[in-house]
């Protein structure tokens, strides 16, 4: 038993008398690395060696927050330097100003009434997921997620001992789950009904957007309508890419579903990282159903205390009207980048592309180009100087057949990437004969 907890080191210092080393938990050892970070490192190494890299691997805006947001943050820092404030702890749920501005945002954009008391400000959306998952699910509970999907859902849930139920989706459902697919997943274990469903619209990695009716149907299934198994399920709606949309109809929030407030199963999570361009400031929010409010506040107090105070000040300023004009201009740039890729990638051999109605991702089926998208991404970086990520992060079973392009950089990067992929295809597309 002791051998399972400690490992004797007799090699690192060449002495058998070294102290035993404590081992990482089995829980932590089961959490895989985020492969996109490996691509980032390889791209960085190439640049450091003097090579050119066109970055399409990271889902991070290529610009920071608008100047007026920075000015508000700077003014607070200056006030702190003068001793007029400490920028210390806030209450766990966030500042009154920011929570009120989030509530106003829902009224103005979605015509939904949100009580500021139900708003929780978090250390990025990542903290919101951790808090929500601990509050809503026990070890052994079953939670359904789309595959492909954002890998951190699965990794956080599995670290908590929650049973993840992948729901395979593809182009036939616009890479989004449906109530019938949830029914099928629920029936896999009739003794343990699904306790929660996580949906992202617009999604990462596919950029697909659920219609209002599709989103509401998923919410209603969680509320027990059309659900064969007994009881309700929590409906976790990841809306961090809202306002980055390219269709005529804006993305709907789960809070717009009929009787959403009465059913009280929707937990909406959003972030200031994507549309608001505050990635490194680590600030997000969630709209918490009444049944989870007290436990999530207690968890916030114990795990994070509060989101960074200075970041909350910047986040509140990012709702200003003059800021929205700047942020919307970034979305127009993403839209132009998207058009360049949707037109140009097929010329480079990437013919099966997701619809990419929102966010800034395109998910491409490369099964006709490779058996291993990790190898393909490596070859493309080495020969074309274009950094993209393999689908294996997003789908453990079928990800080797897909890659993801991120187009939140400049228009020049999007055009340059297409040109480089077309020009160097003879160098990286070397598996085709073996696959045919």
Automatic annotation (TrEMBL):
GO BP, sorted A to Z: amino acid metabolic process
Cofactor: pyridoxal 5'-phosphate
Signal sequence interval, chain numbering: none
The Aminotransferase class I/classII large domain, residue ranges: 53-421
InterPro entries for this protein: Aminotransferase_I/II_large, AspAT/PAT-like, PyrdxlP-dep_Trfase, PyrdxlP-dep_Trfase_major
GO molecular function, one term: pyridoxal phosphate binding
The keyword Nucleotide-binding is assigned to this record: no
Record keywords: Aminotransferase, Pyridoxal phosphate, Transferase
The UniProt record lists the keyword Amino-acid biosynthesis: no
Family from the record: Belongs to the class-I pyridoxal-phosphate-dependent aminotransferase family.
Name the record gives this protein: Aminotransferase class I/classII large domain-containing protein
Gene source species: Micromonas pusilla (Picoplanktonic green alga)
Top-level taxonomy: Eukaryota, Viridiplantae, Chlorophyta, Mamiellophyceae, Mamiellales
């Amino acid at each position: 038993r002791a051998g399972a907890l400690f490992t004797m080191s007799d090699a690192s210092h060449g002495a058998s008398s070294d102290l035993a080393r404590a081992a990482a938990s089995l829980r932590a050892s089961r959490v895989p690395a985020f492969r996109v970070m490996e691509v980032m490192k390889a791209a960085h190494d190439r640049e450091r060696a003097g090579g050119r890299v066109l970055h399409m691997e990271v889902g991070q805006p290529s610009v920071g927050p608008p100047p007026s947001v920075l000015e508000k943050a700077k003014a607070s820092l200056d006030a702190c330097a003068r001793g007029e404030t400490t920028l210390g702890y806030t209450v766990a749920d966030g500042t009154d100003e920011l929570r009120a501005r989030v509530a106003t945002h829902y009224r103005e954009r979605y015509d939904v009434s949100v009580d500021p008391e139900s708003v929780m400000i978090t250390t990025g959306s990542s903290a919101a997921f951790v808090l929500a998952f601990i509050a809503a699910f026990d070890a052994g509970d079953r939670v359904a997620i789309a595959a492909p999907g954002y890998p951190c859902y699965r990794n956080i849930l599995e670290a908590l001992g929650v049973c993840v139920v992948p729901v395979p989706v593809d182009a036939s459902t616009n890479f989004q789950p449906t109530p019938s697919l949830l029914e099928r997943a629920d029936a896999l274990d009739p003794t343990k009904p699904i306790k929660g469903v996580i949906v992202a619209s617009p999604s990462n990695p596919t950029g697909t957007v659920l219609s209002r009716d599709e989103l509401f149907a998923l919410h209603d299934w969680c509320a027990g309508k059309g659900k064969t198994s007994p009881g309700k399920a929590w409906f976790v709606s990841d809306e961090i890419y809202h306002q980055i949309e390219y269709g005529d109809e804006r993305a709907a929030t789960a809070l717009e579903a009929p009787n959403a407030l009465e059913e009280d199963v929707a937990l909406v999570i959003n972030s200031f990282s994507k549309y608001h361009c505050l990635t490194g400031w680590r600030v997000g929010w969630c709209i918490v159903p009444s049944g989870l409010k007290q436990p999530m506040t207690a968890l916030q107090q114990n795990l994070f205390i509060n989101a960074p105070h200075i970041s909350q000040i910047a986040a509140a300023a990012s709702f200003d009207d003059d800021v929205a004009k700047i942020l919307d201009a970034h979305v127009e740039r993403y839209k132009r980048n998207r058009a360049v890729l949707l037109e140009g990638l097929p010329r480079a051999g990437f013919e099966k592309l997701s619809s990419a109605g929102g966010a800034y991702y395109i998910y491409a089926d490369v099964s006709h180009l490779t058996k291993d998208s990790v190898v393909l991404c490596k070859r493309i970086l080495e020969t074309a100087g274009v950094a993209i990520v393999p689908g294996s992060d997003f789908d453990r079973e079928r990800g080797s057949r897909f890659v993801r392009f991120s187009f939140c950089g400049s228009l020049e990067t999007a055009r340059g990437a297409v040109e480089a992929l077309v020009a160097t295809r003879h160098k990286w597309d070397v598996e085709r004969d073996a696959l045919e």
